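REVIEWER CHECKLIST
Item 1: Sequence provided? yes
Item 2: Single chain? yes
Item 3: Sequence as submitted:
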Amino acid sequence: QLVESGGGSVQAGGSLRLSCEATGFAYSVASLGWFRQTPGKEREGITCIYTASGRTWYADSVEGRFRVSRNNAERTLFLEMNDLKPEDTALYYCAAAPGWHFCGGGYEYPYWGQGTQVTVSS
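Item 4: Structure as written out by the authors:
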């Protein structure tokens, strides 16, 4: 089970921090990813981290502004979002998969949270 929190509304240039608590799977050797989706668009993988090594990947659209991290002891994934832009407005999901799996496309993560809304106004 994955439960996101921390979404909300912010003005452009602001920051938000999302959290995702994970239970019910082999967390110690898993890929944890953040995805986002807006109406009418395909879901986009924006960043992922491998819990065993800390290996990360970022989409070009968020690299340098967003930072993914995890607290393995608390089985929690975080997404720090800085310099937010109106185009970052979306429903943000965390997802998990066993082992390392790229989250930028080509693999469907099997475990998903319910999503948390992020709205950035100009």
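Item 5: Key structural point noted by reviewer: The chain has a mean pLDDT of 94.
Item 6: Recommendation: ____
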